[in-house]
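Q: Hi! New to this. If I give you a protein sequence and the SMILES for adenosine-5'-triphosphate, can you show me the bound structure?
A: Yes, paste them in.
Q: Okay, here:
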Amino acid sequence: MRAYFETFKRYKYLLINLITKDVKLKYRRSVLGIFWSVLNPLLMMIVISAVFSNIFRVNIDNFPIYYLTGSTLFNMFSETTNYSMMSVLEAKSLIKKVHIPKYIFPLEKCMFGFVNFLFSMIAVAFMYIIFGYPIYWTILLFPVPVIYTLIFSIGLGLILSALSVFFRDIVHLYSVLLTAWTYFTPIMYPYDILNDKIKLIMHLNPMFHYVKYFRDVLMYKTIPNLETNLICISISVGTLIFGLLFFKSKQDKFILYI
Amino acid sequence: MDFCFLKVNRINLFFIFEVKGEILGNAIEVKNVEMHFNMSKEKVDNLKEYFIKLYKRQLMYEDFIALDKVSVDIKKGEVFGIIGRNGSGKSTLLKAISGILKPTSGTIKVYGAVAPLIELGAGFDLDLTARENIFLNGSVLGFSNKMIHEKFAEIVEFSELGEFLDVPVKNYSSGMVARIGFAVATMVKPDILIVDEILSVGDFLFQQKCERRINDLMQGGTTVLIVSHMLEQIRRLCNRVMWLDKGKTKMIGETESVCNAYESCV
Ligand SMILES: Nc1ncnc2c1ncn2[C@@H]1O[C@H](COP(=O)(O)OP(=O)(O)OP(=O)(O)O)[C@@H](O)[C@H]1O
Ligand SMILES: [Mg+2]
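A: Thanks. Here is the predicted structure of the protein with adenosine-5'-triphosphate bound:
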């Protein structure tokens, strides 16, 4: 364990420099810069709220905030896993040149996604103020579901990044899967409108648990019970362990395919 | 979790061998290394083809042996040259030694920290400027940003890239990329420096400068591995030379005798 931390400490600066590089490149390209990270979810929220509360007449109190909280967390998940998936391929110039622990790359992308998530949380805060939505003390627990989601994303990101080295079309498959996944998570609609069978299946969707947790502490002044926490932890940690093992078993072959 | 067990094991092993290596004075021990590549013409790199081929039972594997039972011990502080025709496996051997490629069989033991492989065109993010690349490459070696800051002036001076420092690397000439590559890799004295053909792209003055730097490092105990097609360079720099031919060791020995044999054969 100590040796593990030693290596990690050794590559701390690499991690920091890679994240800085990504943030710089991302915001160097777009004119609106960081402002865009805040504006984008807000615009999306306006469009979706208009469609769902007026056209489909979805009955949810405070729909804009309901949507925004769900989509912000889900976006973090989809961004981190998407970036991670490409990370090993993108880092090929480094991997071809020097021996470094390769899990650094998907891990870094997850951190980068997390930084972006923090920016879009500004949008959420903004909406709370505009709508004058009550702020409960349970809001302090919001890092918990975020960390669960992040751990799950790192695990999945490790798997995807290893797979994409060998099968490039995973990238397309995953984008289709992500779209389906977005609709299968109660982000734009309430869980209650689902029928009993689908409700049951819904519990197999990790993102359902994390999004619900996130809203519980942010909007509903509810502390999820022990069972919910255990479910969340086992999904996250299980995925992470599986991801690490899978990645480790494949990493020596990366160099032959990139 | 799993990575940590791996690391602990490695360190224990490392320690044992280090003691042995210390006694023998070796920096690198390559024993019976074989490197096989799959050379089948259509490389499957997507799921669709994979399943089609799997179904038709056409998943091909054509074995190609790039390194065939190569063994060599390289002593501490030695400047060791590798020569041979194109495709003889020189770069493959260097990659195996630096830990980038894992050999199919055989063992490689390296005692000390290896600087990143310096070769043409690799290792830099082309969208970033030289300044950003220097920091990125430094942190790949595990240096803190503070440390790189301290060495920054020296690197810039060595590479003579003053006015191009904030230009993206994609706008550089190959010689200029070679310059920062070499400057970054030798920024802090590494135990082992591996140079693949890079010295041949720099201009005459830069080559001289690199050779001086290599000599300095050697005085300080760094082991240097050089691949070059320029035999005069090998003759000037190396203590010993290995001649690879189609993945096999043809000859290992004193610089002069190996170079002469190689010349008379080609
Ligand atoms: N990733 C790879 N996949 C398949 N074959 C490879 C791979 N890397 C190298 N080879 C093969 O291994 C052989 C040795 O290549 P290598 O790059 O080591 O030669 P070299 O001695 O460095 O040649 P040069 O003087 O041209 O640099 C070549 O025939 C090459 O085709
Ligand atoms: Mg070569």
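A: Residues B 90-91, 196 surround magnesium ion (ligand 2) (CB under 6 Å). Let me know if you'd like me to explain how to read the tokens.
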